[in-house]
Design goal:
- The chain starts with a helix and ends with a helix.
- A hairpin with a 2-residue loop joins strand 2 (about 45-55) and strand 3.
- With about 190 residues, it is an alpha+beta fold.
- It has a seven-stranded antiparallel β-sheet with strand order 4-3-2-1-7-6-5, sandwiched between helices.
- It has two domains: about 5-155, PH-domain like (Roll); about 160-190.
- The protein has six helices and seven strands, in the order αβββββααββααα.
């Protein structure tokens, strides 16, 4: 695809993004620094506008055609955390590394940095967005209210029976499910095929 065609597509996507943003009721708006986690945006740090509406989460990169939207029914978990909390969370640090995050915390800034983490489910994968913003608490509260006001879809419901079977096999192997529980769930999943 030619670069001109890519720019034309990005412009159209940006216009669609703006229309969708206008169609929702605004719950929170402000500046944020995107640090990574969305598959369509590279991990380079980007400043932009973060909006929470009745439809979900929108991020619009300043002076760029880059933007993305995460529907409220795809959002699994929203948290506001300090840099110190993120640095101490081994699971989160591993997830961030897997998503390609390449940041390091300066110890004197750990308490001053405030982050918004948003876990969401899309195309069979759990993704995690990370934003640095002083308004992280406000965004987290607004997103939690938007999610609560809508019927939350079960994140596993979008998985195929084969993917679910693989997950329950892993749970059985780790001892979380007993042999009887595994057999019952397996029978249920196989009946869906």
């Amino acid at each position: 695809m030619k670069w001109l065609d890519r720019i034309r597509i990005k412009k159209q996507n940006k216009m669609n993004f703006q229309e969708m943003l206008k169609s929702g009721t605004l719950a929170a708006y402000g500046r944020a620094k995107y640090l990574g986690g969305h598959p369509e945006l590279d991990v380079a740090e980007k400043s932009g506008e973060l909006s929470v509406t009745s439809l979900g989460l929108f991020f619009n990169v300043y002076r760029s055609l880059d933007s993305f939207f995460v529907a409220k029914d795809k959002i699994l978990l929203v948290e506001s955390q300090t840099g110190e909390q993120i640095a101490q969370n081994g699971d989160l640090a591993r997830r961030l590394a897997m998503n390609g995050f390449a940041f390091a915390f300066k110890t004197d800034l750990l308490e001053k940095q405030i982050f918004l983490t948003v876990s969401y489910y899309e195309d069979g994968y759990e993704n995690m967005l990370l934003f640095e913003t002083q308004a992280a608490n406000r965004f987290a509260t607004a997103l939690a209210e938007v999610i609560q006001d809508s019927p939350q879809s079960d994140s596993k419901s979008s998985l195929s029976p084969f993917e679910l079977l693989k997950q329950i096999s892993e749970l059985r192997a780790t001892g979380v499910l007993s042999a009887e529980e595994f057999a019952a769930k397996k029978k249920d999943l196989l009946s869906r095929i």
